[in-house]
Here is the input.
Amino acid sequence: MTISQEPGRLGTLSDLTGTTSSHFRKVCDMAWTYLAVAAVCEVIWASSLKASDGFTRLPFVFLMLISMLATSWLLAAATRSLPLGVAYSVWTGAGIVGSLLVGCVLYGEALGPIRLVAIVMICSGVALLKFGPA
Here is the structure.
């Protein structure tokens, strides 16, 4: 059915774009995958920044630059299908938590009760953004 066949009816996503809801769901799932990989690249970028020791260790500088490009490209790809506010919030939240955990594991940074509460709050906010109504 086309929109012109029934006046006053806006139609479905399939009517307007020629796509099916399962195709749309796959596109959104892929956007979330892009976003998850972008968050991992964000953590790699932050960790490489620390490991570069003020840009004096070139292998880590190169890793930092590559991961910066990758995280930016993947975030841009994710925002083609996801709302910007949700994608950016999830990306930064995952980057914060991931960087905090890497700091604790690799660099011996303290993980006290306040930081644990912060991690739980950030993860709760990210879950609400992902699973909450639009």
Observations:
- Confidence is low (pLDDT under 50) at residues 1-17.
- The longest helix spans residues 21-51.
- The radius of gyration is 20 Å.
- Residues 90 and 126 are 5 Å apart (CA to CA).
